[in-house]
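Exercise: predict the fold of this chain.
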Amino acid sequence: MTKRRGYREPVVQPQDESIRHIPLTQGKFAVVDVEDYEWLMRHRWYAYWNNITKSFYAGRNTPYERGKKRSIIRMHREILGLSEDDPRLADHIKSGDTLNNRRSNLRIATPSQNRINSRLRSDSKSGHIGVSQHSDKKGWIAYIMKEGKVYKRKYFGTKDAAIEARKSWEKECFGEFSPHQH
């Protein structure tokens, strides 16, 4: 039996009574706080893939209006009360958990703050953001960007020393947005 377009698998609700699962397309579901469940369920949500973040998100289309192009209403933005024209972003605190739309995993951020907890590039040699092997192949460079500019950059003899420096700079520069605060 083939499934029709937009089909949503039924979801089993968790035993934890503080959260609920909202069914999406593609066999996915979003996790939300129980307080948000009823009003979010008034809409048909779907899962969509973002090629930049390599993650699924929950979205729905804007209502049809004659002569207007439809766009995506993102669940995480709607929960935080961010309108389409608001330039701020809805940031998932646990960056790899983009279908976790509990309020405890969401915060409002500037684009610069949102980039702080981006994922590690697949071609990373160090296994850590902001640490790369020096061109002499003997040492490592730790660096940190803030507001689009190099904030700190230093050469280290070992990869571990560079990683530790980068972690301490993250706490100093980014505060609550530091990936190592949680």
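Check your answer against the key: Helices lie at 34-40, 75-80, 111-116, 159-174.
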